[in-house]
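Researcher: I need the complex structure. Ligand is zinc ion. Inputs:
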Amino acid sequence: MKMRGWILFAMLVAMTTVRGSEPGEVRSLILMIGDGMGLAQVSMLQLEQGDTLTSFDRAQGVALIRTRSANSRVTDSAAAATALSSASKTGNGMLGVDLQGHPLRSMMTRAREAGMPTGIAVTCYLQHATPAAFYAHVPDRNDTRSITRDLLASGVDVLFGGGCKWLAEECPEGGSGLDALRRRGYFVAGSLAEADTVTQGRLLCVAADEHLAPALGRGDFLPRATRKALELLDREAARRGTGFLLMVEGSQIDLAGHAGDIAWMQAEMRDFDRAVAEAMAYADRTPGVLVVVTADHETGGLSIPALEADFTRADSGIDYHLSTHNHSATMVPVYLYGTGADRIHGVMDNTELSRRIMELLGLQ
Ligand SMILES: [Zn+2]
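Model: Output:
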């Protein structure tokens, strides 16, 4: 290539890298929700990793959010995820609708309407409360058929999770839900290996009938799904000249808390930590990406007391103590990383966090 060719080439590379964005402009969001992940769960991960820093330790900004729902001081995942997705309070058990049952516009719907590609990667079934709050509008979180109907109509471009059982059922427009998604241009994969053959366009990777296996038997599904979703969304956003929105959930931290299983909870935290590391690594090499890591609520009432009564002596161990099989009402942490990480801080309501994120992204 001649000198002038090189200069043109370098200019083209520079243009495609920043995609014409202003310095400091938040173009894309990776929202990561640890279901049931309180500050104690993050502390447990840190304590178990010893001197090795976690991805949470890399945060460039932090905040705290209150989690109460419209009708209870202890929220469930449906109301909390609706607050995070739509900046509106609703009642426990309700998804993407207000207390009167009126539909709410989630940040994913707004992103899609603004022309941005969107994605979801979870280890529960895709119709479960947290992911569903980003696309469904049902007064009852257990109405999985209606949620599946809303999933087919959602227009979310990249989907990783479980829930094949309901997608394989006959749907109103004829054929199965999987057929309906194929008609809408999705490549339907049954495993990560199959999903890895896809290099562009819409993708549904549905890797289990209901929830995926617990972390110890699941391998690295969530970190790999996060990486693959970012690859596809990055490509599609570049094609459209926009940013994108990806929601990733560490879904089973909560299930481990309900089950009172500390080893399972630790495995889920390690897995979620690896997924967060993928998102941060992407933000490191891509300008305009904000990573927000938070939780819908805490599960298990986890505390970490010293084992010995006389804790003033040398370290004699710690205990992980769960005080309930249910959710608790404590505030949960928010960790921010990447472009705009310094622009959200303080103590706020979960709806306020959602509102501020949408403001940074310019979503109406
Ligand atoms: Zn729960």
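Model: Summary of the prediction. Residues 15-19 have pLDDT under 50 and may be disordered.
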